[in-house]
Predict the structure.
Amino acid sequence: MELPQVKEQLLILNHLTSAAEHVTAVKVAAKNKMDLAIGVAIGSSIQIALFVTPSVVLIGWMASKDMPLYFTLFETVALFVATFVVNFLVLDGKSNYLEGALLCSCYIIIAVAAFFFPDVVDQSKSSGPPGQRVSS
């Protein structure tokens, strides 16, 4: 069974590129320094969102590769839900095992939904041209 490229990037590449930050956050959290652990975890996400993503687009532009900042509806909703959950849990400045389990379950739900969600190419084939109804 082969994973499509977008799902591969969402599920696997995420962990490989930020493994050091994950290990650091877990070690610091085990020492009961939650403010530093949350800072490391959220800081890494902010770095990716504000620096790496636009840099990849610019590098793709210089290399004549098409890398637009186009996100599908599913990706936009998943990003909003994840941001909302993290913001809600970090708001009080405290943490417990239940909040950690909620974050892990949020990731698992998004990963399972991404695995079963059809690709953009598959969606366009099933829906037909814009403005035309597909008979069932």
Summary: Helices lie at 5-17, 19-30, 34-62, 73-90, 97-116, 120-127. The mean pLDDT is 76.
